[in-house]
Amino acid sequence: MPTQLQDPPALEPGTLRIVPLGGLGEVGRNMTVFEFDGKLLIVDCGVLFPEEHQPGVDLILPDFEPIKDRLDDVVGIVLTHGHEDHIGAVPYLLRLNREIPLIGSGLTLALVEAKLKEHRIKPYTLTVTEGDREQLGPFDLEFIAVNHSIPDALAVAIRTPAGVVLATGDFKMDQLPLDGRLTDLRSFARIGEEGIDLFLVDSTNADVPGFTPLEREIGPVLDQVIAKAPRRVIVASFSSHVHRVQQVLDAAAAHGRRVALLGRSMLRNMTIASDLGYLNVPDGVLIDYKKARDLPDDKIVYMSTGSQGEPMAVLSRMANLDHEIEPGPGDTVILASSLIPGNENAVYRVIDGLTKLGANVVHKGNARVHVSGHAAAGELLYCYNILKPRNVLPIHGEYRHLMANAKLAQDTGVPAERTILGENGTVIDLRDGDARVVGQLDLGFVYVDGSTVGEITDADLKDRRILGEEGFISVIVVVDAATGKIISGPEIHARGFAEHDKVFDDVKPKIAAALADAAQSGVRDQHALSQVVRRTIGRWVNQRLRRRPMIVPLVIEA
């Protein structure tokens, strides 16, 4: 895996350059930039959700820096499907240039347009469907149906004079999909016959042996759980998982229950899916959340967000008794989703919280209430054997997933030197069937924190972690400007400590002595005196209380 930073050379004429800006080494922030003949094509533009060591962060964006000055050269953003990790960063990119057209299927564009409306952006869009071909600048694009955990997902074949690239987006090969829309292996084979110079392939389940189970196996399990539930049922899923919501609606209708949708994104996405005909709502099943509270407990199913343990999502708030619906004995909670890597602790905390309240929690660990939307190793082997790609770039996954995918490619005959294990910012040039790494860009995390984008740094997050874990101490001292002697203080206030503030009485003489020594040495600078205070109390707290808190000294001259 390349780690050495290296600026790529100028792009030679007739060469296609590929630069992943996100999605490699992580599950999220999927975004890849293709450059040919002075024009750029972007495939996907998603977000990554924060982990526990990133407190206060709402979203993490790809680093747009390498293309910020070239947005007028972008001929379009192809969106493979409507999940947040593929469309969530589109508003932040279009804020920089609203003229960039978006290309995707009907449902994908409807979901992203609803998101953009909240940002007051009306995009230029081009709706495509499987089998369509479009010419965008020097890029000849063909769209191919793939099966995923959201309807209307597409792979894209990108043809240029430098070669043919096939990017799968997220996909699996469910042979009995709920919507009857199979991954189009016939088109894969046809493009394989033409010759695929570079294959960008979903790696999320590359380390899972065999085949991803069928989506339709979930329906009977949900039906059974809902049939046996004595009181309320709460189902948590991704807010865009149309198939899962469909299965819940069908099971609820079969057992005389009504369904209330909870969470703004769930309500918005399912309204769009229903309006476009992707969600078939049985007559009289949906009910407004406020009216649902008047129904008997055994006649209601709540469909909510929060399956990843997100602190502000509906399910987490229920577990913390911070929501109008308070789960209790007899209630059944179904977590109908996978665990995104990094979210495990948050999810188990929610499961524990709900269990403590007396709810029966059904999840992937104890019942088949979710199947993945990503191809497992067996499916990927089929793809490699059908496509016979010359070069492979595993994308979308943590390093172990990328590594497992590369191994599968090599098992089917792709030479190791043509299997590229890249990372975000790896620059790959494709020409004459040869894909080579020619550089490595220095990319960072771009944090969305409330209304600010990119202002929060890793240093700020470190400060937040220290505040949360080690506590905070402020020290105020007033000194004589002429002599440097203490007039008032030190006054010490601590937060996040079990001990009373009186415990700091022992260190006050040490601070006074250290300031007196500094004054004797002729130190009068406020910043220098503040550092003396910081070092003195920091050393004492570390030795006495075994803590490394954030210390904010304030030395005032009078």
TrEMBL record:
Protein name as it appears in the record: Ribonuclease J
Key words of the record: Cytoplasm, Endonuclease, Exonuclease, Hydrolase, Metal-binding, Nuclease, RNA-binding, rRNA processing, Zinc
One Pfam family of this chain: RNase_J_C
Annotated compartments: Cytoplasm
UniProt gene name: rnj
Gene3D superfamilies: 3.10.20.580, Metallo-hydrolase/oxidoreductase, Ribonuclease Z/Hydroxyacylglutathione hydrolase-like
Record bears the keyword Hydrolase: yes
UniProt-annotated binding residues for substrate: H370, V371, S372, G373, H374
Domain Metallo-beta-lactamase per the UniProt entry, residue ranges: 28-222
CDD domains noted in UniProt: RNaseJ_MBL-fold
Listed HAMAP family: RNase_J_bact (MF_01491)
Family to which this protein belongs: Belongs to the metallo-beta-lactamase superfamily. RNA-metabolizing metallo-beta-lactamase-like family. Bacterial RNase J subfamily.
Subunit structure, as described in the record: Homodimer, may be a subunit of the RNA degradosome.
Alphabetized InterPro entries for the sequence: Metallo-B-lactamas (IPR001279), RibonucZ/Hydroxyglut_hydro (IPR036866), RMMBL (IPR011108), RNase_J (IPR004613), RNase_J_2 (IPR042173), RNase_J_b_CASP (IPR055132), RNase_J_bac (IPR030854), RNase_J_C (IPR041636)
GO molecular function terms noted in the UniProt entry: hydrolase activity
Listed EC numbers: 3.1.-.-
Main function: An RNase that has 5'-3' exonuclease and possibly endonuclease activity. Involved in maturation of rRNA and in some organisms also mRNA maturation and/or decay.
